[in-house]
Design a protein that fits this description.
The complex is a heterodimer of chains A (254) and B (716).
Chain A: H1 3-11, E1 32-33, E2 36-37, H2 41-50, E3 56-59, E4 62-65, E5 86-87, E6 94-95, H3 107-110, E7 114-120, H4 126-133, E8 146-148, E9 157-161, H5 166-178, E10 184-188, H6 189-194, E11 216-218, H7 225-235, E12 243-244
Parallel strand pairs in A: 6-12, 7-8, 7-9, 9-10, 10-11
Antiparallel strand pairs in A: 1-5, 2-4, 3-4, 6-11
Chain B: H1 2-23, H2 29-54, E1 58-66, E2 70-76, H3 78-101, H4 111-130, H5 134-152, H6 161-187, H7 195-201, H8 207-225, H9 233-240, H10 243-268, H11 274-296, H12 301-329, H13 332-367, H14 383-396, H15 403-416, H16 424-456, H17 463-466, H18 473-491, H19 493-508, H20 512-516, H21 533-541, E3 558-561, E4 569-572, H22 574-595, H23 622-632, H24 634-637, E5 640-647, E6 654-662, H25 666-687, H26 694-715
Antiparallel strand pairs in B: 1-2, 3-4, 5-6
Helix pairs in contact in B: 1-2, 1-4, 2-3, 2-4, 3-4, 3-10, 3-13, 3-18, 3-19, 4-5, 5-6, 6-8, 6-9, 8-10, 9-10, 9-12, 10-12, 10-13, 11-12, 11-16, 12-13, 12-15, 12-16, 13-14, 13-15, 13-18, 13-19, 14-16, 14-18, 15-16, 15-18
Classes of the chains: A alpha/beta (254), B mainly alpha (716).
């Protein structure tokens, strides 16, 4: 019965050191392809043709990755003569809007006590599975002052996953409306960023930005838990974003 | 003798009203009833006011002399004057309301019949209060019982009406018989049947006789007062009665029971030991808790209010029980405070219960239903009715600054004063009863939050509730009058207590005004006789005399300091509380305005879970709101669930499920049903004799004749 006290003391702290130090434990991230200079335009076109989601654009002998569409399928690295370079890491969140106005900024007031409302707007379940992990002992979002709340009336941040299926348009809009200002929206996953492999279609929009103003986008399919944590940290300005104010569908960050 | 003339004028007006109602054109009947009833109420109020403030006993009329039984007389004293005043206060607004309410009966019912009964009921109730001897008391009591039965069963085509009214009549008659026996027991030792003669004869009775008188009178009158275990008729009679009659039932007729208890058990035959008082206290506390428990789980508005009447009568009875204990132990000041609390609560209950019933009648007229699960959101259609109903709800929930708070606070303080008693077991009983009363107060808030929140706020649960129409001017005027009374009785206790004190002083042999409203808050006297000068000057240092220049009377603070052994002070002032509450509200308003001045305000719809369409079925229903109470007290309520389902292919392919939860009232289950069951079994045994065979019956005749012959021979 009381064993768990000693067991806990013996094992010690096992939580991730992120964001104080980078976490390099194996398996915390699947990694993702990055912009790669290639030998020829033909090689770039071949890679672009292999990409099932159209995330790769071949231009002048190099490829440019639209991370908002990338689903980490490895088709651009496996069984090809000239593979794209693959980079580990998880600090993927980009900032879509500037959090400069006093009305929109959460950092000063809620930086260390942030209440998050999570909405599944038609996600396949992968993002849910990853988002659930930030609550476990390893990623442990509570040490960062992040909490999940069941009602948007208490929420500061809206965490959205999924391309926003038609049935979830109204609930998502209502959830956003019900949140008190200042509030921010973090869209996680390729679907919420761009529609992913599901949208836009007859039943789904092309991401959360079609319904509500999105502040931070965490790409990845699904984004690993550390990337979601990075997204939340970006939302409260405790970490710099991987890129600022760009459309993931168009260009790579500077 | 202006009071006598006023009383005579009242009886003549009632008679005139009854006669006029028999001949007036049908269309003018409702208006006539309203005018005559209101005028009669004003006469009663004037008469009782004169009587109350004049003090002493007033001999009105001598009716006639009966050989060997003495003279039958009508007389009044401050106690009857107080009850008459409460009756007048209720009859006035109810009569005004009736002119609007009775319109719905004008097509299919005989309003003539109703009008005559209404005036006779009013007269008979006043007769009960001014009866000065046993015979006139019992006769007017019977008249009142029968007329109220006829009024309850007025809509006799309503399902269950006859049976419910019959239960009411049967229980009432049982109570009357018990009361009559109690009177006969006292009268056996007295020279006459007049109350003064009974009063002087009571101390000569032996202990077993005193006990018999107490038990018979208390439980006999408890039927009318609706105390457990004799409360079954109240929740049955209310839903079937016309709503203005319900208001009279709950606000006037139950008071008659309390009047009887006070008259017989405190005035005519005051207790000599603590035991009778403790019995009344325990019965009162149990009534309070059982009443409010069943009120909380009701969804039908009138039945809920009926159970709440049982609760309030319980609180009053607890106050009277405490008075009896304190009188028997000689603690006069505390006895005076306890009786003041009880009578104050009686006044308050009559006023706010009348308001709630009139409000219920208005809601019923506006929407056609009294089921809380079918109401909802009627504040939009009936803003005035809802506002007045809210005043009633706040009052009955005992929230300051309304009147329920003052009397419940006084009652609880009285129970806490049991520390002055010498006997520890008695103190323990008081402590338990105090805890029950406190729990009652808490549940009352739950109950009436439910009523107002699910009935008046939120979404409309039926088309009728959505299209609710504001009630007519007469109903609104009646509710406004009652709501104003609720507020006045709440914020001016220091002027109400001296009025009630006229009735309390002769019974408790001490003035509650002196104990409760110290005079040093005002200009007249700087010194209170029962308070040490150091204490008084301490209050003066705090600024207690502020306002003494312009406030009439004894100031606005109710304060009591115990005796030397237990100098605990309790004090409150709802008047100042109102000022402070309004100040705080204003301050909050100003502060919020200042703080949010520069902010942009966005208005969005309330959070509904993100649903496409929020239907009323998804919002909190009355049943859902009270379900936690139902679950917590399941052991007491003991609900039984019956489930029926129809299956298509197999057990788990159900096409329809019907669940029915039924609760048998705990009193019915444990007190009333067992003897009924025993009687049934006895009847079944006797029935076996009836075999249906002629020869057997001939044998019975033969046997009976033989028995008679043998017994006859034996006797000779």
């Amino acid at each position: 019965m009381a064993n768990w006290v000693f067991k806990g003391l013996r094992i010690g702290v096992k939580s991730s050191a992120y964001p104080r130090w980078p976490d390099d434990a194996p398996g915390v991230s699947p990694g993702r392809p990055v912009n790669t200079p290639l030998s020829s335009t033909a090689a770039a076109a071949a890679l672009a043709a292999r990409c099932p989601t159209g995330a790769i654009k071949g231009e002048d002998g190099s490829i440019i990755i639209d991370h908002g569409r990338c689903v980490h399928c490895f088709r651009c690295v496996r069984d090809v003569e000239e593979p794209a370079s693959w980079r580990q890491g998880y600090e993927w969140a980009v900032q879509e809007t500037e959090a400069d106005t006093a009305l929109r900024s959460l950092a000063r007031i809620f930086g260390r006590s942030l209440h998050v409302r999570f909405v599944d707007a038609g996600a396949c379940g992968a993002c849910m599975s990853e988002a659930r992990q930030i609550n476990n002992p390893y990623y442990n979002m509570h040490r960062l002052g992040f909490f999940i709340t069941p009602t948007p009336r208490n929420a500061d941040v809206l965490l959205v996953a999924g391309p926003v299926s038609d049935a979830m348009r109204l609930p998502l809009r209502k959830t956003y409306d019900a949140m008190p200002t200042p509030k921010r929206v973090v869209a996680i996953g390729a679907c919420a960023a761009s529609g992913g492999i599901f949208g836009p279609s007859f039943a789904a929009a092309d991401g959360a930005a079609a319904i509500i103003p999105v502040d931070v986008v965490v790409p990845g399919c699904p984004p690993p838990p550390l990337a979601i944590l990075h997204g939340l940290l970006v939302a409260v300005e405790r970490k710099p974003p991987a890129g600022v104010h760009y459309s993931l569908r168009e260009t790579e960050p500077a | 003798m202006i009071a006598s003339q006023l009383l005579l004028a009242f009886f003549m007006l009632c008679a005139a009203g009854a006669v006029l109602a028999s001949f007036a054109p049908p269309r003018s009947l409702a208006g006539l009833l309203s005018v005559v009833g209101s005028l009669a109420s004003l006469l009663v109020l004037a008469c009782s006011g004169l009587l109350l403030f004049a003090g002493g006993q007033v001999h009105f009329f001598e009716l006639w002399s009966v050989l060997t039984l003495g003279t039958l007389a009508l007389q009044g004293d401050p106690l009857s004057a107080l009850f008459m005043a409460v009756t007048g206060l209720v009859f006035l607004p109810v009569s005004i309301f009736s002119s609007a309410y009775l319109v719905k009966y004008s097509k299919h019912h005989n309003l003539r019949y109703f009008s005559v009964l209404y005036h006779v009921l009013f007269a008979s109730i006043i007769l009960v209060f001014v009866a000065g001897d046993t015979i006139s008391f019992l006769v007017s009591w019977e008249l009142m019982s029968i007329v109220s039965y006829l009024l309850v069963t007025y809509e006799s085509e309503r399902a269950g009406s006859s049976r419910s009214a019959y239960v009411m009549l049967a229980m009432s008659e049982g109570g009357t018989i018990a009361v009559a026996i109690a009177f006969i027991l006292i009268a056996g030792a007295s020279a006459g049947l007049g109350f003064p003669a009974l009063q002087s004869a009571a101390p000569t009775l032996g202990a077993p006789m005193r006990w018999a008188v107490f038990l018979l009178a208390f439980f006999g009158f408890a039927v009318k007062a609706g105390l457990v275990p004799l409360n079954s008729w109240l929740p049955l009679a209310h839903p079937v009665a016309p709503t203005n009659v319900s208001a009279l039932l709950s606000a006037v007729i139950v008071n008659l029971g309390v009047y009887g208890i006070v008259r017989v058990n405190l005035d005519l035959a005051p207790p000599t030991g603590v035991a009778p008082g403790l019995i009344v206290l325990v019965i009162g506390s149990l009534s309070a808790i059982i009443g409010i428990l069943y009120a909380t789980i009701q969804d039908e508005l009138k039945r809920l209010l009926a159970h709440s009447t049982i609760e309030n009568m319980g609180i009053i009875a607890a106050g009277i029980g405490a008075t009896m204990v304190f009188v028997a132990t000689g603690h006069r000041f505390v006895a005076a405070i306890a009786l003041t609390a009880a009578l104050y609560h009686l006044t308050n209950h009559s006023v706010y219960k009348a308001l709630l019933f009139v409000g219920t009648g208005a809601v019923e007229a506006g929407t056609g239903t009294r089921d809380l699960d079918r109401l909802g959101g009627i504040i939009r259609g009936m803003p005035w009715t809802s506002a007045f109903f809210l005043v009633g709800v706040l009052s009955i929930s005992a929230l300051p600054p309304f009147n329920g708070f003052v009397s419940e606070w006084l009652t609880l303080q009285t129970v806490l004063r049991s520390a002055v008693l010498a006997s520890t077991p008695v103190k323990i009983v008081f402590a338990i009863c105090g805890a029950l009363l406190a729990l009652t107060a808490g549940l009352a808030v739950t109950c009436f939050v439910k009523v107002f929140a699910t009935g008046f706020l939120g979404m409309s649960r039926s088309p009728a509730a959505a299209e609710a129409q504001e009630s007519p001017a007469a109903a609104r005027a009646s509710m406004a009058l009652l709501a104003t009374l609720c507020l006045a009785l709440g914020i001016l206790p220091t002027y109400v207590i001296p009025a009630i004190d006229h009735a309390v002083t002769p019974l408790a042999h001490e003035s509650a005004t002196a104990a409760l409203v110290p005079p040093f808050f005002s200009v007249n006297a700087q010194r209170a006789d029962n308070l040490p000068p150091a204490f008084t000057s301490e209050f003066h240092d705090l600024g207690a005399q502020v306002g003494h220049g312009f406030l009439p009377g004894r100031g606005l603070v109710v304060l009591h300091r115990g005796d030397e052994r237990n100098p605990v002070v309790f004090a409150m002032s709802t008047s100042y509380m109102l000022v402070v509450l309004l100040g705080i509200l204003l301050l909050i308003f100003v502060a919020m305005r200042l703080l949010t001045r520069k902010r942009r305000v966005e208005r969005r719809i309330a959070w509904d879970g993100g649903l496409r369409h929020l239907s009323p079925e998804l919002t909190y229903t009355a049943t859902g709101f009270s379900n936690p109470v139902r679950v917590i007290f399941a052991a007491l309520l003991s609900p039984s669930a019956r489930e029926e389902s129809t299956e298509a292919v197999a057990v788990h392919f159900r096409t329809a499920i019907r669940r029915e939860y039924t609760e048998v009232h705990v009193i019915d289950r444990f007190v009333l049903q067992p003897p009924i069951e025993i009687l049934r079994r006895l009847a079944a045994l006797v029935r076996r004799m009836h075999v249906g065979n002629v020869n057997a019956y001939a044998a019975y005749v033969l046997v009976a004749m033989l028995v008679v012959l043998i017994v006859g021979v034996g006797l000779i």
